[in-house]
Design a protein that fits this description.
The complex is a heterodimer. Chain A has 15 helices and no strands. By secondary structure, chain A is mainly α. In chain A, helix 2 crosses helix 15. Chain A is globular, with a radius of gyration of 24 Å. By secondary structure, chain B is mainly α. Chain B is globular, with a radius of gyration of 23 Å. Chains A and B meet through helix 2, helix 4, helix 5, helix 6 and helix 7 of A and helix 1, helix 3, helix 4, helix 5 and helix 6 of B.
Chain lengths: ~290, ~280
């Protein structure tokens, strides 16, 4: 493949004066890029941690261990623990159907899977309020049967599922497309059952891509603000996730506490980026090894 | 009847497609249909008066305008970042490369309070801008800053793979035929990168138009001045004006759908370019 240029072969190559820029242009561009990224990424990140510890480690510790913060952390973990597996099952079955079979309307389905990314988070929350809220289509029936979805945990989970819906599928579809289906066909011809083929042949070959999708899905699930804010009702100690807890603290001028809670999510973001980069390097290494063989 | 799918030894077509469609309908399509149904419980004239109300119009102007400026900033600087990351070697490049995705990974509420603290009149950056008479936090400029942050990775990440796949031979040929480096860039490189650049721009723009979390903290939320459309939807919802909220949501959605379509066309164009 033309695009598979090894980064190793490029590194040793001498600089070709005809196809690169003069020294001062190169360094000006590097400086511009680094300044832009510092201004928009690094400084805000530093600010989060600096503000979090601005009133000492004791205030920080108290802010993240108080009962309401603790409850928010647990709810955030719960929402992610439900929505990520749901979207993994969806992603795997959608990718299986799309990449292993030929059928009409495939391209349209791939586009539709990305739809939740195009929808404003606020609208994502709103659609569930319209469906399940007190004045919603199913509202009267739900209240007759004593089921609470909006301003309760199920609504938060639903909103989170919606905003993280495409992550796993859109990672798996190109990957499984590239791998084709010859391995599966071989396994099946040799007498393996459908599930055996999936668990022993397909899953091992997509595990890194799957993990990549899960990591991104999880980061969004734990950090979602807009959609969850609309459906949660902001009931302290009950329907507050960590991002909503941050908002309340911030609006009450408890800045150190707000940034302490924010630093937990910023830490999660950094871990996500680290794991993501490790998976990408792993992937390039695998490809280089495969193309070397 | 034309045969829809070819025979295959691989099982599970019905199960996987059936489950995926069922789940997608339940989570995405039926709720979205409910939104349109709700918006059209309004009469035609009620719908238009909600959607074309002066406060709503002011919010579209801000949402679209700020998203457009943010996406333009990202197009220019994202190009430089992608170029530097692909073409040059410097210390810490891998860390910088990983960091570009921060806006995807950092929750929007965290970004919102961090940017507000920095750009507030007494913040690290705000204290330098206030003497110059530049107000960022609690002003329209703050919305631009937040939306630039949110859209930052898109241009970089759509350009990077295209830049990596560009063949050096074309540039060498241009140089050996006597083209200056600037002319090679303008006449050879830029046209090849244009589809990806526009796709990245459109993606950043689409993301920014609907953004809520990072903007509500920094904007100050003053009606007519710093109120974005998603916030206006939330306000209507809090006043129990569900149909009004749904009507504005329909406007936002239709706009996103058009953008999504445009992005698809751009990507199609880009892949045709790359294949040619």
């Amino acid at each position: 493949m033309a695009g598979n240029v090894s980064s190793l072969s490029r590194r040793g190559a001498p600089v070709n004066e005809a196809t690169t820029e003069p020294f001062w242009v190169r360094w000006t561009l590097i400086l511009v890029a680094l300044s832009f990224l510092s201004l928009f990424l690094v400084i805000p990140l530093i600010a989060v941690f600096k503000e979090a510890f601005s009133r000492g480690i004791d205030v920080y510790w108290a802010a993240i261990t108080e009962p309401e913060a603790w409850h928010a952390i647990k709810l955030t973990l719960l929402a992610a623990a439900i929505s990520v597996p749901l979207n993994v099952i969806f992603g795997v079955s959608a990718a299986w159907a799309i990449t292993k079979f030929q059928f009409r309307g495939k391209q349209a389905i791939i586009t539709l899977i990305d739809l939740p990314f195009a929808v404003s988070p606020v609208v994502a929350g709103l659609i569930y309020v319209l469906l399940f809220g007190a004045q919603g289509w199913l509202g009267p029936w739900l209240s007759d049967n004593n089921i609470k979805i909006i301003f309760a945990v199920p609504g938060i989970v639903l909103a989170t599922v919606f905003v993280t819906f495409p992550f796993v599928a859109r990672e798996l579809i190109p990957l499984m497309e590239e791998q084709g289906k010859t391995h599966e066909e071989a396994a099946l011809t040799l007498g393996a059952s459908g599930w055996q083929t999936f668990w022993r042949v397909t899953l091992p070959s997509i595990k890194w891509g799957l993990l990549y999708g899960i990591i991104l899905c999880n980061a969004r699930a734990m950090g979602e603000f807009g959609a969850v804010s609309v459906v949660s009702g902001h009931i302290r100690g009950q329907t507050n996730t960590l991002p909503l807890h941050i908002e309340i603290l911030y609006n009450e001028y408890q800045f150190a506490a707000a940034f302490a809670a924010a630093s937990l999510l910023a830490g999660l973001a950094l871990v996500t980026l680290l794991v993501k980069s490790l998976l990408e390097w792993q992937h390039t290494r695998d490809r280089e090894r495969a193309s070397a063989n | 009847m034309k045969k829809v799918r070819h025979a295959s030894v691989i099982p599970g077509f019905g199960l996987s497609l059936g489950y995926a469609s069922f789940y997608a309908s339940l989570i995405v399509f039926i709720p979205l249909a409910a939104l349109f149904a709700k918006a059209f419980t309004l009469s035609w004239s009620e719908f238009w008066s909600t959607v074309l109300d002066p406060q709503a119009l002011a919010s579209y102007r801000l949402s679209l305008g700020a998203a457009l400026i943010g996406a333009l900033i990202n197009m220019v600087f994202g190009f430089v970042v992608a170029w530097v990351l692909v073409r040059y070697q410097f210390f810490g490049k891998r860390v910088v490369d990983a960091l570009v995705d921060l806006p995807f990974a950092l929750p929007t509420a965290v970004a919102g309070i961090a940017l507000t603290t920095l750009y507030a009149p007494k913040g690290w950056i705000g204290e330098w801008l206030t003497p110059l008479g530049i107000k960022v936090a609690y002003a329209p400029l703050g919305v631009v800053v937040a939306l630039t942050f949110i859209g930052l990775p898109f241009v970089v990440r759509t350009l990077q793979p295209v830049l990596e796949e560009l063949e050096k031979e074309v540039e060498e040929a241009a140089a050996s035929l006597g083209a200056s480096r600037w002319n090679t860039f303008r006449r050879i490189l830029l046209p090849a990168l244009l589809p990806a650049l526009l796709t990245g721009f459109a993606l950043a723009f689409a993301r920014a138009v609907g953004e809520y979390g990072s903007v509500v903290f920094i904007s100050g939320n003053m009606p007519f001045r710093t109120e974005i459309t998603p916030l206006l939807i939330v306000t209507k919802l809090e006043q129990y004006n569900y149909a009004g909220a749904a009507a504005l949501a329909v406007v936002l959605l239709v706009f996103s759908f058009v953008l999504l379509l445009l992005i698809n066309l751009l990507q199609h164009w880009a892949s045709k370019r790359a294949g040619a």
